[in-house]
Amino acid sequence: MKSKTSCFNKTIFLKNITHFWPIWLIFTAWNLFILPFMIYNHSLSYKYSSGINERELAQMRVDDILGIVNVYINPIILFFFSIIVVMAVFSYLYNSRAANTIHALPVTRKELFLTNYISGLLFLIVPEAIGFLFGILVSAVCGYTSMNFLLTGLLFACGISFIFYSFTVWIAMFTGQLLAVPIFTVIINFLYVGCKALIHMLMSIISYGIPLDFPTGKLDVLSPLYYMGTHIYVTRDYSSEYAAATGLKGSNIIAAYAIAAFAFSVAAYFIYRIRDVETAGSLISIPWICPVFRWGAAFCGGGLLSVLFCSILDLSSSRAIFFSALIGAFLFGTVCFFTAQMFLEKGFRVFKKKRFLECGIFLAVFMCLYISIESDLFGQERKMPDASAVKSAFIDNIGISGGSDADTIAHILEIHGQIIDSKKEFEDYSESSQQSGYISILYKLKNNTSLKRSYRIPWKEDLVQDKDSVLSKIIELSASKETYRKELFGVKKQKIKATACQIDLYDSEQNRNDHIFSDEDTEKIYKAVLKDIDEGNFKNCLTNKFFYEKQIVSTYYNTIQIDFMGEEPILSVHADYAPGFQAEGEKSGNTIIEFDADCKNIIAALIETGVINSADDLITIEEYNLLTEENTKES
Fold this sequence. Notes:
- By secondary structure, the chain is an alpha+beta fold.
- Helices cover about 60% and strands about 10% of the residues.
- The protein contains 24 helices and ten strands.
- The strands form three sheets. It has a four-stranded antiparallel beta sheet.
- A hairpin with a 6-residue loop joins β1 (about 235) and β2 (about 245-250).
- The longest helix has about 35 residues, at about 110-140.
- The protein is flat.
């Protein structure tokens, strides 16, 4: 009679249930707390509320459900429980006696793996399903109607749990130490974004103009926990009175990861079949992974420590920074390489000829990376987008200037190109005692990516007269009529109506008296501001902002605040430069206007409205500072 090969062992399954019951009990309690209890708790608030119509009440309940589901599917929490479960059901692999005993039983490795894998997965899925069922019951009793979001949440939670669980099982097959499982799982989940951040840090301290930013990219998907944490969220509708929750985003991401997770679980099974039982207690259970571990530890540790080493030295010379980074990489890379080998050997006798040779090869590769960054082998320093690929461009200096029109983009590209061509001159200039300052250039590209660079450039008053200097071109852009109008009233060309206006006035005792204009006078001040912009009367005021000593003697301390309303949502230059600066859908805005004696139309309007008798009633920044000093001495 032909014998049957079993793929599942009931005895081992029941052993897992009875031995590790605290895990599934705690996870069940968590799910019961998050769904049914929190839903009931939120429902109590509606018993004492009044003046809420049915439409508002329905939307508030949708917000409640989605807010609770958002916690229920939180990737970090599910990631944590997945690691705990894997460490429990496969714990026998990390103890020599337990591993030999279990593998001596009349069960196949296939049977062992599948039984433990399935039982561990059920530790996650069943509590989530229990929480969902009780959540449905409580929702129905409490009058919630949008229970379809609970089903979506269950599918999301099960998918995310399956992904992290399968991925952790795969990682667990590579080590023979229990505590290494969570450490390796966290490291590998952040390995890509971590290495990208490290390389970007290296470029920022070695390369010319690379800022210390960590841009996102499509390959961030290689770091599952990081990617899901930023791409799975509650969607909201910003067109209503408040940001109303509408659903869950990220189902396609979970589906794609689930397919990959299935492949990882199959790979884990085949690794388990060839895994040597004697590796229990070893840091790495698969021999060919050991060099990867050594090189990875040396690269990450050596690179990070070399960056910290340069930061501590606080050098200004680009050459000194590079050589200190190179020396730091050599020293710390060597230390991290042999430290990693000590963990593998579980001892200190690691200084062997074979390891010195391998370390030498690693250091040669590592040094080549640093030299290639310094020599701009990857073209990161000279990288500039084509004008046709740029959606909008900005320069961030004293303020933010830029936009999406072709002339502005061309102007900024011209400035950027001149800065790149002046690398040697500007680096030597910034290393000397001469005056210099920082600027940042940001491009938003049509493919929804961005490119940012930061530079230290010469910053002296006499450069303003040199029309070919970088500083002069930056000021020309920042102080232009069109740029200033955008800064005050938004980047969209539309009809603006001034709704309120006030100015701060000060007497000889430094007492402040804010004057609020009537609707009629508000319109007069607004038109005066526009007229001064059109006549270019703000040019000196805007130029002097770049030089404090000139600004304080010419610019008035008195400022005008105008509240305004547009026909369409107001989009400030700041909001376009940094999304999230201003909420979507706002048609109202306000602006603060600084002016000087050249703004004759504003001064005439202030006199006409009776706010001041003459320009002498206004005080400059320097005069205000002197008043402050005098009043301080008297007091």
